[in-house]
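Batch manifest, entry 17 of 40.
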Amino acid sequence: MNDRLIRILLDSFPKLLEYGVRVTIPLTILSFLLALLISVLVALIQYAQVPVLRQICRFYIWIIRGTPLLVQLYLVFFGLPSVGILLEAYPAAVLVFGFNEGAYMAETMRGALESVPKGQVEAGYCVQLSYLQIMRHVVLPQAFRIAFPGLSNSLISMLKGTSMAATITVMEMFRQAQVINGRVYESLGLYSEVALIYLAFCTILTFLQHQGEKKLASYGGAVK
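Output type: structure tokens
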């Protein structure tokens, strides 16, 4: 490794890390919260077997899971302006990432809801709880404990996937690496550096996931 490359990497690291902390991580968190909200609503509708709404949810999952994320980003950011809907790059990325991952997380939540014994729902009715109270106090807490590993994996996957926001001009960590590389032409070194930063972020999330799983297991949950 020559002196020039070392200077470039040392100079670029704080810039890349800054964009990672200031843009990539908030983008991931906002998108994940949106995905979590969508997944819970979609899973609850399917669990409740609401006829028309259930079919709409299945259609949403089918469309999202059957089309590439990159295409979805382009449709929203570059396609919608042709019908008069203009979105800034950052909110467009949040919406696309949220709705995309929400479809996958909905299936995780649906499986978790269906794994809660039906007898607990019946027991809730026996003590005069309403359906919403049973969902809130009995079914959902157990479902979240069961779904925790899968949801955590979705968060880690989403963190890495936010690099695709660079394709619609969001100035996140990977886009900043592209900008720097456009000036210095050190693709291998810079992209390796940004890959290591992503690896560090994901390692931290993986550690937190394991700690969360241990905490849930200590309460006697099904999470291993």
